[in-house]
Amino acid sequence: QKEVEQNSGPLSVPEGAIASLNCTYSDRGSQSFFWYRQYSGKSPELIMFIYSNGDKEDGRFTAQLNKASQYVSLLIRDSQPSDSATYLCAVRGSQGNLIFGKGTKLSVKP
Amino acid sequence: GAVVSQHPSRVICKSGTSVKIECRSLDFQATTMFWYRQFPKQSLMLMATSNEGSKATYEQGVEKDKFLINHASLTLSTLTVTSAHPEDSSFYICSASWSGGATAGELFFGEGSRLTVL
Question: Which of B7, B21, B38, B43 best probes binding to A when mutated, by most A CB atoms within 10 angstroms?
Answer without folding.
Answer: B43
